[in-house]
Please model this.
Amino acid sequence: MADTITSLLSLARQGGIDTTGGRDRRAADLCQVLAGCVAALGPAGERVDVQVPAGLAVGVPGELAARALQPLLENAARMAGSVSVTARRADSRVEVLVTDDGPGVPEELRDALFTPGVSAGGGGSGLGLALARRVARSLGGDARLVRPVGPTVFAVELPAAAPDER
Model:
């Protein structure tokens, strides 16, 4: 929880999250962003399989892309034995799918899962998914639950980098 709050304060000081719609359009290589996210998981990162096409870039700063992706990876690594990450470009967006073999999301939590303070357990604070969605939406994307059980799949959409931003 302290890490989440520290990250939020850091982003706020830098002006990193702009909810008015303006964005810093610097591109970030998605493979590099995800490599940093997986490394931050420590030993749990060894259970994460990343299969992302080389050269796939998001049209947002890497630090902000990581802030939208890290909570999903942390949750998946905490709740599951194995995690896979895939991504694809879909028109003007990049969709990142985080799939895990954990117990899934209980039905009674599915509608509120991205609400601050709501946690599916496993030692989470209930802030990570709310933060992921807030950051993704502030960048013009979104974070959502795609499949609640067998296997669980979450998605983060971020703007794709324009060809001249790579």
Summary: The beta strands are 28-29, 48-51, 57-58, 83-90, 93-100, 142-147, 152-159. The radius of gyration is 15 Å. The chain has a mean pLDDT of 86. The CA atoms of residues 28 and 112 lie 31 Å apart.
